[in-house]
Here is the input.
Amino acid sequence: MEKIHSLTGMMDLISENGLESNLANKIFDTEKELIKIFESYSLKEIRTPSLENEQLFNRSVGNSSDIVNKELYTFKDKNEKSISLRPEGTAGVVRAIIEKKLDNDNHRFWYMGSMWRYERPQKGRYRQFYQAGVELLGFPEGLAELEMISMIILINSRLEIKNPKIKINHLGDKNVKDAYCDALKDYLEPISSKLDEKDFDRLNKNPMRVLDSKNPETQKILKNAPKISDFISDDAKSLLNTIKKTYGEDLIEIDSNLVRGLDYYTGFIFEAVSEDLGAQDSYLGGGRYDQLFEDLGGKKLPAIGMAIGIERIADITQKSQEKKTLISFIILSDKIEQKAYKIAHDLRSRNNNLIIEVQLLDSSLKSKLRRANKDNASYAIILGKDEIESDKVLVKSLLDDNSDQRELNVSELEDFVSTL
Ligand code: HAM
Here is the structure.
């Protein structure tokens, strides 16, 4: 029969015992570590659907963004309704809070899940990828900004990220953003024939996106372009400087060309990058979106958030996997040995740091030990007919080829596993 393949840019994540280099292992461990960090900031979990009305993304992420323009997975459902797989999490969170009439209070949320963007796949860029997101809702500019950066710094240190850099910028409010866009357009339009097709298109749809251009020619042209820093208020400038002073010149860089590819941002924006990632160097990004609640029909609610690309951050974490001792539990019998199985069951409650893998297939001792070694078990606990009858177990260390196996009674076994 012909085999069926996965879709382009969509990965299977399959973890393996004891393999530090396995990306799935790293991803799952990273997710657990991030949740611990989020909880330490008093964030609560929120889960929203993967599918939403297409309109939600048009009105938030925006029609001028690549994400909506080119990358949205949109389908007609059986009722001919246009629905989209979410390309990011913020729009769904804001929709949910408005819909549940919770937009009269403040909230601190985290979420984690798959996002979909129809991009050209390459290292660090997938069509289905995972994000962990944070949204602080109902908090005006100020301390919430410091809280976001503080969280990024804790993430960097807990996940032992090499060479992190945090770029920050301020887009001003809607009026400032509009005035700057006009100035940039006035500067670029007379020389627009020098732009490549992509940048020309950006100039027409959203001039600020030209600042994001990777084309060296465009970057040369931009050297003399108006700077957003000349348009923003003194308060905004002082916020950027306070953040730089608070968290250090080495880590924080004010980058007036930082724009972000989503339309809902106003005010403070940021991205964390690491040169170890290659071309797709940003492992998280976010910013303030004080207008979005109103744009989606809710009350006026200031908000700031960020999302972390899990595959990318897992690729650069240097944190070694949490070590748990794996014990392979071998029962040598062709029938169900309830007494032997109960020992394995009880051992698990003795020590949370243990992994007890009961071998479930009936095979020889030799092949069960081979399996235990393949799974990187530290010990094998073996119960043959004699042991089961005499309430004893054999414990064999697999860490050392020369070690003998020891015979223990059940209470000695419990003492032994408590020490692991
Ligand atoms: P974003 O910058 O579009 O922001 O995505 C955040 C992160 O997701 C990126 O920095 C990157 O690490 C990862 N990412 C994006 N696209 C891909 C892809 N195709 N493959 C792998 N990883 C990817 C947002 O999504 C906003 N919702 C962040 C936010 C939350 N702003 C306010 N609240």
Observations:
- Residues 88-90, 117, 119, 124-126, 129, 131, 133, 135, 262, 282-287, 305-307, 309, 311-312 surround histidyl-adenosine monophosphate (CB under 6 Å).
- The chain has a mean pLDDT of 94.
- The first helix runs from residue 23 to 40.
